[in-house]
């Protein structure tokens, strides 16, 4: 796995290699002779066969791979996170506890590697089943997804409901213990493999909230989504998690990320990247002066905002600076870009800063097209961007 | 490099046979890497429901065929050309100034929204700064940036107002510094007029694709000027090329009445969008925001919306009374704008 394969989307191939390794461990754990000792676990009044405790898992890993408890906890945690082992108590908490908490192996049918990608249709059927079985007990996010799916694949909804009913009927034929086992397995699978949601971000296909301005004559959608707003919309914040590029392309996203980096004392990386972009796309006449600035601020020994580049790239860049040209910073820029993408970006998505932003974000109410077309709303002209720039420079002049 | 004289024992005919043989070998090698067809993978995706897309605005006011248009980043203004009509605010329908440039075949909005580029049969591409004063003589502020030896067919700004990429009937593409008008890089490789180009939305931002009358779509490295990939499967001129939102693939529209989808990593064509009932050439394409839909404008006055993954047509949009010359998605994906030889622009949503 190199920078190049990552950039060209080789992640799936690499993920598969990881899955294969994890599966090897799992298979070894279930080996009849050298594997783990299983026992029956009681869940309320039903007995679940073939279960083990978290403590069992850790001890087995420590013994088999000759590792310390911390490492066994970490590896075991990964197995739970990727769905190969699932907890029987508190199924939504995907962690491995080193105590008497019961766990089970996921059936290979539901392994991520065999069933990827999880389709929306399967998920819809699963949610429909749950809805029918336990009226009103869907979780908040499940309720949301259910209604979104209901709208989106409405034309196949009869099929979804029919399938759900069929599957429920078939499962009633099974023994209660088996049924509970299957339900646990299925639930564990969907906790991990929620299908990705991109279509909801496509206004022409899914509509947009509160309404598409061109259809309803209401510019609220544009007002809510201008470059800088106090509170951004939910979809916009979600979009930042799709890829690093999406985050950087959105001015607000970039600002938020900068705030996060400042807390981590690595904001110079983003500043450096922005300065390099400026050189690459800027005027020819200012290249030399900009390269000088970047060197002084980011690359010179003892620089105020020194960036951490490997020595080979640093040497190459310093040499290139002696004859500065538009692309002289490319290698260094790429290095820092991928550093941020692989390290800071995933951590940002898990951070409280991002999670709070997502929680605060608005999900606008849908506004249908006005029933009275003759009550045409006043259409206001917005300032042309050229005006905005002129105003800004005027204000600067005055200041 | 390409202009050595014939070596001993070579004739034009023998070289041609050798080149054809090499091309066949390349196709065989490409075929070996092919593991699964796009439509097979797409079987797992859901079928799209019916779309209800209608005309929401019709813009009249051009006195001639509208050949080109481009959106402003503010999502509601656009620039359109036969004559250059700057910053028409679609929302309030107020027209910007008309510029007396004739023969304009290509136009583009600068990322900042403060300038507009246009070029065409004058073999040049010029940049016009936009100002608030409607009476100001904008024609006088027009600045020539690109100079080709034949008509300019396409132009676009790169990530800033300072650099511009153009394609030309002289068979080349070129990268220009706007401030000085200096040629930064030229791209040679097409053997006929280049009709269209598009910048890649990639993280490293260094490539673009061009399509031309030699039926080839070429991918170029902007730094070195090298042609890094080439695709030749259309049966006639390629009129338009457009990248898929992820940057890993692109679509093309051609006079052979088909649109095709090429995957850059697989290095081959992966889908053809065609129907027996579609007889006239396609002149323009653009993707919806997620990339699931492909909108294509045709010379039979219609726009067809295709399901990119499954390959079937999802919708036909009727309304124009002459050829559709350009379709373009608005920057936030809420609408499609189409320009036509019937002198109007339409907004669809």
From TrEMBL, chain A:
Superkingdom of the source species: Eukaryota
UniProt entry tagged with the keyword Transmembrane helix: no
Region of interest (Disordered), ranges: 376-399
Gene Ontology, cellular component aspect: cytoplasm; neuron projection; plasma membrane
Protein known as: Regulator of G-protein signaling 11
Keyword Disulfide bond applies: no
Source taxonomy: Eukaryota, Metazoa, Chordata, Craniata, Vertebrata
Domain DEP: 32-107
Organism name: Scophthalmus maximus
Cited PANTHER family: LP21163P (PTHR45746), REGULATOR OF G-PROTEIN SIGNALING 11 (PTHR45746:SF3)
From TrEMBL, chain B:
UniProt keyword annotation of Ligase present: no
Protein's UniProt name: Guanine nucleotide binding protein (G protein), beta 5b
WD repeats: 145-186, 187-230, 231-272, 317-349
Gene Ontology biological process terms from the UniProt entry: signal transduction
Gene: GNB5
InterPro entries: G-protein_beta_1-5, WD40/YVTN_repeat-like_dom_sf, WD40_PAC1, WD40_repeat_CS, WD40_repeat_dom_sf, WD40_rpt
Source species of the chain: Scophthalmus maximus (Turbot)
Source taxon at top rank: Eukaryota
Key words, A-Z: Repeat, WD repeat
UniProt key word Nucleotide-binding: no
